[in-house]
Fold this sequence. Notes:
With 224 residues, this protein is α+β, with helices and mostly antiparallel strands. The protein has helices at 10-14, 20-32, 34-59, 80-92, 191-194; strands spanning 96-99, 118-125, 131-139, 142-150, 159-167, 172-179, 183-190, 199-206, 217-222.
Amino acid sequence: MTEQDHHPDLTGLLRGELSNDQVLDAGRHLDMCPSCRSDLAELAVGHALLSSASRRLDAAPRPAPTLRRAAPSRRRRTTVALVAAAAVAVVAGSVLAVNVLGDGSGGQGQAPVAQPPTQVARLLAVDGHGNGSVRMTEDHDQVAMRVETHDLPSAGSGHFYYLWLLDPRTNKMLPLGVISPGGTASFELPASLLGRYQAVDVSLESDDGDPGHSVRSVLRGRYA
């Protein structure tokens, strides 16, 4: 196996858990591997977002826990448990509904005004109960994403719900931000980035500063 084939532990590198020799090896690998440099950049963004969410939770009152925390596991961006969660979502038959808005015709004598295409992905329960939807409206090279969640239990003390983009083929995930168990949240991202993923995932996270997915998905939905 060449050094190009041996991918370093990027999560360990970001959290300062590697030895000096491992850090030097990772640095040499990153010099030659654009894919790992891209993964490290996305992981760093996720770490910053989760750290920010953790600080906000530390400063806010928290309700009594109503969900039991998942059993401890080694968190990696690609794990056997995450593969199993993706398989459950496929068997559950996550439904995609495509809704193109009307032609938005103007007044008499005016040409029809084209409305930006919108698609809606239904969020179905993977673990426990709850549901929701993700409405994605494309405008030029940007996508406005509006997420609605319903009937999720309170996350409980020291926990929160988090939204991710997921590529089910590779189990690669991109963190987007914190969402509430019942309500709406809005995000805006490049259309080219959205096209690299095919599903939306809602996970239950602990505010421990770990940027990786907790491997406890509660809602998931696919989109085109």
